[in-house]
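FAQ

Q: What does a record look like?
A: Structure on top, sequence underneath. For example:
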């Protein structure tokens, strides 16, 4: 076993140190400072699996111990080729093939302070399989993490304090995509011609909703109160509401002809992505379809104008703005502004496969969105659409706050269980896997 004992255990220097100390036996790499206690024959199980399969990496579920001495199992998800996000959870320790470790380290030319392990595991994935054992084979004893730290972790990739680390991660994933022939060449993206007619309005605000009687009126009125030099409407897909939401919408529509209501009748009821498809393909949808969640509000009266202007300025198929996290009453929550300033026109489509979201509000050139369509799910549907668009078309960005994303106890992403988080992460990794394969196939053909 080789183990690094230097300042940053995730640096390139640490990975080289581990490789230098490795021999012929499987190599244990501890990814945190936690104390690792293997179960009886747990380490042997990991090492035997590595040897018998010829895998590059083997990892497993694990236990932690709470302050009352109770053991809590942490179930991880399977790795797949699209598991490119730099925060993929391998647990606290992994077992690595020593020959592949040395070969991968030999190819590492960048000196990363934070992205050494990320760079290494991407390289290892090109040399062999990565196997997850759904067995708790060790216990990790670690210091407690505060609730504030847990809350900020979701947005760590857009925290300015982490910018240098993010640049390292971006370099590593771009090199990986290049090696796989999956890299998007921004000079080959197709600009959009917006000269065609046939749309009833220039823009439509799309709002899928189910049972949001506390927030839906705020969202709709926020959209209707926009000031623009073009015609627009608001399309709400009322997906089986039973809590009074439908009555609120009908009351607003009785005096506001720009509000269009679609009520799906198919069973089972569509997900958020399915609702978006109904809005996109409706006869009332405008040239540009602009997102607004039923919990949230636009934070300025010219949001639609800024988005449509950006479409014409960049001749792009999608525009993504910036938003501010607030509580229900509009008070700022950390980390505040989410602007995804890590995006660049030159490399944004590649880095998008590493991060876990593209930002909001999102807006789409309707003909392109109609051609692709959203997956009929209620998590990750917007990310899938954004990745598919970025493969072929430019994406415009607005870095000013256009949108208040309100966090409250009724949010669908409030206080998610570990099982739900795993399902969400597994699905987004699947989206990335599909996109990765699509980009490889596109580059192969060209």
């Amino acid at each position: 076993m080789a183990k690094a004992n230097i300042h940053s255990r995730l640096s390139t220097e640490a990975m080289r140190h581990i490789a230098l100390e490795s021999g012929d036996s499987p190599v244990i790499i501890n990814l945190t400072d936690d104390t690792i206690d293997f179960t009886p024959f747990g380490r042997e199980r990991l090492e035997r699996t590595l040897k018998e399969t010829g895998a590059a990496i083997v990892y497993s579920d694990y236990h932690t111990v709470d302050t009352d001495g109770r053991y809590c199992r942490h179930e991880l998800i399977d790795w797949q080729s699209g598991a490119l996000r730099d925060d993929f959870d391998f647990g606290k320790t992994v077992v690595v093939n020593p020959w592949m470790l040395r070969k991968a380290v030999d190819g590492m030319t960048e000196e990363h302070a934070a992205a050494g392990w990320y760079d290494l595991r991407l390289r290892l994935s090109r040399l062999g399989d990565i196997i997850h054992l759904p067995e708790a084979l060790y216990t990790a004893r670690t210091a407690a993490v505060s609730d504030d730290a847990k809350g900020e972790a979701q947005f760590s990739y857009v925290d300015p304090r982490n910018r240098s680390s993010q640049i390292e991660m971006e370099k590593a994933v771009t090199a990986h995509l290049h090696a796989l022939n999956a890299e998007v060449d921004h000079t080959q993206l197709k600009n959009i011609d917006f000269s065609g007619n046939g749309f009833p309005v220039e823009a439509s605000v799309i709002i899928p909703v189910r049972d949001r009687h506390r927030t839906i009126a705020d969202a709709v009125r926020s959209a209707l109160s926009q000031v623009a030099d073009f015609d627009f409407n608001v399309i709400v897909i009322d997906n089986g509401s039973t809590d009074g939401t439908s009555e609120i919408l009908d009351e607003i529509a009785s005096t506001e002809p720009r509000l269009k209501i679609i009520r799906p009748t198919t069973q089972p009821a569509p997900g958020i992505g399915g609702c978006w498809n109904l809005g996109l393909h409706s006869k009332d949808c405008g040239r540009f379809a602009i997102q607004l969640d039923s919990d949230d509000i636009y934070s300025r009266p010219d949001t639609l104008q800024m988005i449509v202007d950006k479409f014409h300025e960049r001749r792009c198929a999608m525009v993504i703005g910036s938003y501010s996290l607030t509580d229900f009453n509009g008070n700022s929550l950390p980390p505040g502004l989410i602007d995804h300033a890590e995006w660049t026109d030159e490399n944004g489509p590649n880095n998008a496969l590493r991060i876990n979201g593209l930002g909001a509000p999102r807006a789409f050139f309707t003909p392109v969105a109609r051609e692709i369509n959203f997956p009929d799910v209620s998590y990750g549907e917007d990310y899938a659409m954004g990745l598919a668009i970025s493969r072929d078309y430019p994406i415009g960005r607005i870095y000013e706050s256009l949108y208040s994303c309100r966090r409250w106890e009724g949010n669908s992403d409030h206080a998610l269980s570990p099982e739900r988080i795993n399902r969400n992460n597994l699905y987004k990794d699947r989206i990335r896997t599909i996109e990765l394969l699509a980009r490889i196939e596109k580059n192969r053909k060209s």
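Q: Is there anything notable about this one?
A: The chain has 14 helices and 15 strands.
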